[in-house]
Write a structure and sequence with these properties.
The radius of gyration is 24 Å and the shape is elongated. Helices cover 33% and strands 10% of the residues. It folds into two domains: 151 residues, 3-Layer(aba) Sandwich (Rossmann fold); 171 residues, Protein-Tyrosine Phosphatase, Chain A. It is built from eleven helices and seven strands.
Length: 353
């Protein structure tokens, strides 16, 4: 591998192999996406700035916040440097991911479709694997591919043109239709939902936003599959969308619950901040919608876990609250077993059976 990075020169002294240099990069005509971590000591973020110079982007696009290249700036440093003066940036979809970073506009060189993003410290060479960055990274790549390579890679396009009644729809349409779309408020914090469906006249993004925008601040999608609706329409309508995939039939892991609790804590903080800034004018406090497929087992597990960990509910109280608001409550006995083992290591009650 190291040998392959060394150049071979032709008779005129020009390199014909090895790592690409300025001439090679300047000849690239396809869309390019550069992503780096500010604390990466293997491929440093300053290399992105050097590459962008080949495309006429000012060298000031990225400079370390503190001292030299080896310093580690604070997590408070901006995620993205840019856009440059006079050159408009392109929007990044607000579809949501684990909230380790906050998005700003990227630098955009419209003619060459060159995009660049710098994740703040402590983001490093492990960007694709780090729990704090991999979802945001995935979202940036998804957005770039559908906007700058082929629009058919967009989930919105696929839902519109490929949806029939199989993989792009609910597994059991009759069962899905029989389930109530939205529960009563759970613990004054959540609404339990069944998954939205792009082809449904009522429980699809646009009518959902019109009906629930003032009552639901965000939706957390905990289904494992890609959504069968276009979440961008939620974001555009003012309801945040967050994806936290989990496997059906299996109780959520401790790490998954930890991620869920952290995400809800952050969203609750944003709701409180909005109320402080804008006032509530007599309206009820906005809540957070959560759905898996039908909104009973995994959804119930996460909601009861949060009520126990953050709201002071006992296990029995949390299970009863969910059952009251989303009857018949959690349906899988082994989910209830896991809750009792995890939170009190006692005997399982008969709630929800």
């Amino acid at each position: 591998m190291a040998w392959g990075t060394l150049p071979v020169y032709d008779s005129s002294g020009r390199p014909t192999s090895g790592l690409p240099g300025e001439a090679i990069w300047k000849g690239v005509c396809v869309p390019l996406l550069f992503i780096a971590g500010e604390s990466d000591q293997v491929t440093k973020a300053t290399e992105v700035s050097k590459l962008l110079e080949y495309f006429g982007v000012p060298s000031s696009f990225y400079k370390p916040e503190i001292g030299g290249e080896g310093d580690m700036p604070s997590r408070r440093s901006p995620l993205l440097k840019g856009p440059a003066d006079g050159i408009p940036g392109s929007s990044i979809l607000a579809s949501s991911y684990i909230p380790a970073v906050s998005h700003r506009e990227p630098y955009s060189k419209e003619k060459a479709n060159v995009k660049a993003f710098i994740f703040p410290s402590p983001a490093s060479h492990a960007l694709p694997y780090d729990r704090a960055t991999y979802r945001a990274l995935s979202g940036l790549i998804q957005d770039f591919l559908c906007n700058y390579t082929d629009s058919r890679l967009s989930i919105g396009w696929q839902l519109k043109h490929l949806t029939t009644s199989g993989k792009w729809d609910v597994k059991n349409l009759a069962k899905w239709k029989a389930v109530a779309p939205v529960s009563n408020p759970v613990g004054n914090t959540f609404f339990a939902l069944k998954t939205l469906r792009e082809l449904d006249e009522e429980h699809s993004p646009l009518p959902f936003v019109q009906k629930w925008k003032s009552r639901i601040f965000a939706i957390i999608d905990i289904s494992h599959e890609s959504p069968i609706y276009n979440p961008t329409q939620l974001d555009q309508g003012g309801i945040q969308y967050h994806k936290l995939p989990t496997v059906s039939k299996i109780p959520p892991t401790i790490d998954e619950v930890r991620d869920f609790v952290a995400l809800v804590d952050r969203l609750e903080g944003e709701i409180s901040a909005r109320i402080r800034d804008e006032g509530i004018n007599g309206r009820p406090r906005p809540l957070i919608g959560v759905h898996c497929h039908y909104g009973f087992n995994r959804t119930g597990f996460f909601l009861t876990s949060y009520l126990i960990e953050r709201k002071g509910f006992t296990i029995e109280e949390a299970l009863e609250e969910f059952k009251r608001c989303r009857p018949p409550g959690i349906r899988h006995p082994h989910f209830i077993d896991t809750l009792f083992v995890r939170y009190c290591a006692g005997l399982r009650g008969d709630l929800g059976l």
